[in-house]
Amino acid sequence: MDLFNPLAKILDENKLIGPNYLDWKRNLMLVLTAAKVYWVLTTEVPELPGPNAPQADHDRKSKWIEDNEMAKCYILSSMSNVLQQQHIEMAAASDIMLNIKEMLESNIAQLRCWRLEA
User: Fold this and answer.
1) CA distances from 9 to 22, 77, 100 (A)
2) d(C-alpha 86, C-alpha 81), whole Å
3) Alpha carbon separation from 117 to 18, 104, 113 (Å, rounded)
4) What's the pTM?
5) How far is the C-alpha of 85 from the C-alpha of 68, rounded, in Å?
6) Contacts of 82 (CB under 8 A, 6+ apart)
7) Cα separation, 96 vs 23, whole angstroms
8) Which residues touch 7 (CB under 8 Å, ≥6 apart)?
9) String of b and e for 2-24 (b: at least 16 CB within 10 Å)?
10) pLDDT per residue as tens, the chain (118 positions)
11) What's the CA gap between 56 and 2, in Å, rounded?
12) 16: helix, strand or coil
């Protein structure tokens, strides 16, 4: 991973492979916050402004697109190749995170219960 941010080294050393989902997510949130792109995960995709819309609307959409692409780069580069291939075509970083959560979070909860019972 080309390090745009010194914290990104954390992601490079702790790629998402499945069972480490919670640690990966915690580290990813730190990096996205430091890179000032975390907000795209919690904000709906802005609608495309019309031709007569104020410049501020166009700027907001452009900023969201730019920050979403950066967040996607951090997310995708911090996961295994198999997971990358499954998510690379998704348009929004928030969609990637939601899909990963749905895929892995229930498995993690089951694994925790199994460890507690053992």
Assistant:
1) 17, 11, 21
2) 9
3) 21, 20, 6
4) 0.81
5) 18
6) none
7) 17
8) 30, 31, 34, 35
9) eeebebbebbeeebbebeebeeb
10) 444 557 778 888 889 988 888 899 999 999 999 999 999 999 998 988 998 999 999 999 999 999 999 999 999 999 999 999 999 999 999 999 999 999 887 766 665 554 455 4
11) 32
12) strand
Both tokens assigned to 48: 């495309």
Type of residue at 85: Q
Spatial separation of the C-alpha atoms in residues 14 and 35, rounded to whole Å: 18
For residues 55, 39, 84 and 102, what is the CA-based torsion angle, rounded to 10 degrees? -130
Among the listed residues 4, 14, 26, the one whose alpha carbon sits nearest the alpha carbon of residue 78: 14
- Residue 43 is which amino acid? T
